[in-house]
Amino acid sequence: MLPRKQKRRLTNSLNGAARRSPLKIINAMKKFFIISVLAAIFGLTSCTGEGDNIVGTWDATKMSMKVEDIYMTVDIAETGMDMELTFKRNGKGTWIMSDNSGSEGFDFDYTLNGARLTISAEGESLSFPITITGDDMTMEFSKDMLDTDYPATLHFVRK
Q1: Contact by Cβ (8 Å): 116, 129
Q2: What is the pLDDT of residues 33-45, one digit of tens each?
Q3: How far apart are alpha carbons 66 and 72 in whole angstroms?
Q4: N or C: at which end does the chain have fewer Cβ atoms within 10 angstroms?
């Protein structure tokens, strides 16, 4: 879960986004993306798993969300960020995120139970509904997971 201060900032940014111009909404989405990715990087924990359809390296391509009646999509490349997830057959993986200031990453354990992915690292776990269709994967962040008024979807393409 997000630390309380980050949850408050994220909630304020997203709730205010609906009252702003489209450009400001896009900027709020960029902030949302950065915060949610950082939360995932620093908040994940340990598990093991299987699931051959997830095995491989995945690049994040976009993040989308619906704020009230407005659907928004942010191209991750346009944010100056890059995110890569690698899943191995042995239930282990690596999450790497980079931007202009450098890169950070961590190793994790994972389980895939049907359409639910659980990623664990450093004593904590997060569970995401996912959809894999060929070389495309989506990962759902619930509004409760992010402690916001709006759920979000992170889109990946297999390398």
Answers
A1: yes
A2: 555 554 444 433 3
A3: 6
A4: C
Cα(105)–Cα(121) distance, integer angstroms: 11
Least confident range of 40-49, 117-126, 146-155: 40-49
pTM summary value:
0.65
Helix (H) or strand (E) holding 110: strand 102-113
d(CA 157, CA 159): 6
Question: Nearest Cα to 10, choosing from 40, 42, 43, 33?
Answer: 33
How far apart are the C-alpha atoms of 159 and 156, rounded to whole Å?
Answer: 9
Q: Which domains does the chain have, with CATH numbers?
A: 4-158 (2.40.128.280)
